[in-house]
Amino acid sequence: MTANPSALRLPADVERTLSHWLSEARFASEREALQALVSAAEAGSATAQAEILDAFSQVLPIGTGGRRGKVGPGPNRFNKVVVRETAQGLVQAMRAAGDTPQVAVVYDTRTHSRDFAFTVAEQCAAGGMTVVLLDSPRPTPELSFLVRRLGCGAGVVISASHNPPEDNGIKIYGPDGAQVLGERDAALMRAILSVTELPELQEEQRKQIHVLSPERVVSEADPAYHAYVLAQGVAPGDLSAAGLRVAFTPLHGVGHTSVLPALRARKIEVLPVERQCDPDGGRFSTVRSANPEAPESMAMAIALAEETGAQLVLATDPDADRLGACVRGRDGKFVPLDGNRLGVLMLDHVLAHATIADNGWVLTTLVTTPLIATMATARGLTVVDDLLVGFKHHAGMAAEHPERTVVFACEESHGYLRGDEIRDKDGSIAALLLAEAAALAKLRGETLLDVLDAIWCRFGYHREKTLNYMAPGLAGRQAIAALMQAWRTSPPAGFAGLTTRRFEDRLQPRHTGSPTRDLPGDVLSLELEGEGGKKCRLVLRPSGTEPKLKIYGLARSAPGIEPAALPAVVSQIDGVVEAVLADAHAQIEATMRPWLGSAS
């Protein structure tokens, strides 16, 4: 430990914050790890120096998926101090809002998740709240359901979703079971930042913490949630006649606790990857990334499917709110489907088999395939398709219009929902809908790939692709901010021979009349057009959960395609998307390189 942090030659604000963490009592839980980091920096470690600079350069923000970050010391890292401050800020915000003084807490399988969950429970109880804590790893959407069912004033999930193993996070839910949004989000962050004291839990306050043992979670918490998930299915009757066999992996997370009961209740044969049902100590050692958006994450499930003759492969992320899938084609090979195409298949299934009320609507985002809106509109449904990324925006629309029923909601990053009693995406509902669709297709002698082809021929071929430009650390944040400001100030004239016809900066005021749709977001959208009717949408958005810039390309053809002509149309539209993204990536690289280079 250094008695003089200025010896590290840090910026003044970073040095000041570091000094507080090295000396003040409330940071004692992180002192040992911090002293080791400082010692390494003093010994000349450039890695330790960079870690300190990033860990103490800002307060860990609330992004699209709560507060997430690398576990370690510092205000821009995830640790017990940040967790306690978040919980105390939540208590203060709940009091100010007059919310019911009861908090539900759920955690996933990450290394420190249980410890962090109990830290939340203790801090909330120290602040006068009653706490219900499920002491067995469970899905994030089950927390959303539990908040509404118990009438809680708030809910907390300890999870970093599909982030790397070294990360963890906390997601805060309001009394409607949705992640905090808009003014409630801002009020919570103000409350967190205003925390100066952390009350210690008194012994008599421990009785305010109601811990449900694993056995009680199974008998008291799970049944109502599982019944609700099952009720969102739309396929008629017993599906056993289809003979569908599904290989499923929860990727060392909690998905098997909700997906397996749902599929088995519909008489669908589901074979779990047992090795990946093991929490694995939070190491995720059998996958490079526990992200079902990445086809390689399903390698073990595909191997199981090949061994057993399964026709469908499903995967949920560690907190089971996202779904990934691979479908066996007519040639016997498995084809991964991206989040947009999975959403299209689920919506097609719902529109074909659900009883849809007059007040039903479909919700999606500005970076999700326009095919969702086209299909829903053709059915006569009300559609909102310009939401910012993050299912809290879908939930915001539901809160604005409680008289409406969510027929289907989705976003391209493998998030799906049906129904009104869960206000976040749900991997088990998605798994149920997709498995139902696959079973009915099999009964007709088709695959889900055949279903997609038919949809494209009717409504037009759609192609969407996302690039992730990784930019970690302080230099990365600065580079992304510089790029966004440069394009905001002077929008590019075009890409790959297409001209920018319309430019939208979602930080600028909007006037749709909906508080949720009018929320500002750090998003730039460009509508591009070229010769021969070529069109493509390009969208840029800094990730709210990881150190990267997300670049989206979306293009589509005219409707009414003859099946024989579909391959040529596919080739043309795919070429447009690839060319636009390649040119955009080159221009982004040129703008960001000076910032990233200055840190090397």
From TrEMBL:
The keyword Magnesium applies. Residues 63-194, 239-326, 338-456 form the Alpha-D-phosphohexomutase alpha/beta/alpha domain. Coiled coil: none annotated. It comes from Nannocystis pusilla. This is Phospho-sugar mutase. Keywords: Isomerase, Magnesium, Metal-binding, Phosphoprotein. The keyword Nuclease does not apply. Its cofactor is Mg(2+). Belongs to the phosphohexose mutase family. It comes from the Bacteria.
